[in-house]
């Protein structure tokens, strides 16, 4: 007699509920019921309103600021562990605090490692995430990490544009590996921006390594926060004779006056995923949903089939 694999249960953290609903729908199921109780001082308590004993559960939530998003994920993991869930997968389309992945000066934390330990201590038995700020963050975990690439979403988008004289650009030296992977898939050249920072989120100087004259340039990056780097790079490239400049970034944090910078810049469009909720509508900001990618991977994980094809650039 064949053994039927019980269906997994899906639950969402509050700020990622829209994406979680899309993922569940793509999978062919509904979100489970989680109730959040709040105290008057701001403390909160999530509770699962259905049994999860012995089940595989997927907790969907990006950990972008505020810290409540991370805290909610940790509390839900702990609740699931104490409710005797068998497999507890933290599905984090955006893994926050990842920029602090090393000591870049004395007496600072390695936040990404700390978060990894907190997630495992809270009860996560597996992590599914997308476009980590640095690939080596996978090694901060002792549990399996499925690290997906948004290039599987963006490459078809770029190919459909049918751009002549296409050129891929990296907004900094650190993103050159990602840029080369895109250029290989699209069979085009690469240009790299060299930038010097006065302090975090403030660029003092930027220079181009390579020629962009007569090219349709696509900047690729893992995240856009203040949009300072991308807009400065786009303006510089247009000055150097580029025909057009677009940007593709997986995680659209878009904090502060990012939207105003994008509107005023030479960027033709900014393409992001919905790993983080888009707070504002803008004609220049296009959203490509990652829901089908995550639903597919979660299905493969649950049924123990290979997800190797989702790792390819």
TrEMBL record:
The keyword Nucleotide-binding applies. Residues 9-123 form the Ribose-phosphate pyrophosphokinase N-terminal domain. Pfam families: Pribosyl_synth, Pribosyltran_N. It comes from the Bacteria. Keywords: ATP-binding, Cytoplasm, Kinase, Magnesium, Metal-binding, Nucleotide biosynthesis, Nucleotide-binding, Transferase. InterPro entries: PRib_PP_synth_CS, Pribosyltran_N, PRTase-like, PRTase_dom, Rib-P_diPkinase. GO terms for biological process: 5-phosphoribose 1-diphosphate biosynthetic process; purine nucleotide biosynthetic process; ribonucleoside monophosphate biosynthetic process. Its EC number is 2.7.6.1. GO terms for molecular function: ATP binding; kinase activity; magnesium ion binding; ribose phosphate diphosphokinase activity. It catalyses: D-ribose 5-phosphate + ATP = 5-phospho-alpha-D-ribose 1-diphosphate + AMP + H(+). GO terms for cellular component: cytoplasm; ribose phosphate diphosphokinase complex. SMART domains: Pribosyltran_N. It is an enzyme of class 2 (transferase). This is ribose-phosphate diphosphokinase. It comes from Aggregatimonas sangjinii. The lineage of its organism: Bacteria, Pseudomonadati, Bacteroidota, Flavobacteriia, Flavobacteriales.
């Amino acid at each position: 007699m064949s053994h039927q694999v019980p269906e997994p249960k899906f639950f969402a953290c509050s700020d990622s509920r829209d994406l979680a609903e899309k993922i569940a729908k793509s999978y062919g199921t509904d979100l489970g019921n989680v109730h959040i109780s709040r105290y008057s001082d701001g403390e909160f308590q999530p509770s699962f309103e259905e049994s999860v004993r012995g089940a595989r559960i997927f907790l969907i939530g990006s950990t972008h600021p505020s810290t409540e998003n991370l805290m909610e994920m940790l509390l839900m993991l702990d609740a699931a562990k104490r409710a005797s869930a068998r497999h507890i997968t933290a599905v984090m389309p955006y893994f926050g605090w990842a920029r602090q992945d090393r000591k870049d000066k004395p007496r600072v934390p390695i936040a990404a490692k700390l978060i990894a330990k907190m997630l495992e201590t809270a009860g996560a038995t597996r992590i599914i995430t997308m476009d980590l700020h640095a690939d080596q963050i996978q090694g901060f975990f002792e549990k399996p990490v499925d690290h997906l690439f948004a290039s599987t979403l963006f490459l078809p988008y770029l190919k459909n544009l049918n751009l002549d004289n296409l050129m891929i650009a990296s907004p900094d030296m650190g993103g050159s590996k990602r840029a080369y992977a895109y250029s290989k898939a699209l069979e085009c050249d690469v240009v790299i921006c060299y930038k010097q920072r006065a302090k975090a989120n403030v660029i003092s100087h930027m220079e181009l390594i390579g020629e962009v004259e007569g090219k349709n340039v696509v900047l690729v990056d893992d995240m856009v926060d203040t949009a300072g780097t991308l807009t400065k790079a786009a303006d510089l490239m247009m000055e150097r004779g580029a025909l057009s400049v677009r940007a593709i970034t997986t995680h659209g944090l878009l904090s502060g006056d990012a939207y105003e910078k994008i509107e005023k810049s030479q960027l033709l469009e900014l393409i992001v995923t919905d790993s983080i909720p888009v707070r504002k509508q803008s004609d220049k900001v296009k959203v490509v949903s990652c829901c089908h990618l995550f639903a597919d991977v979660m299905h493969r994980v649950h049924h123990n089939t290979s997800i190797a094809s989702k790792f390819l650039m």
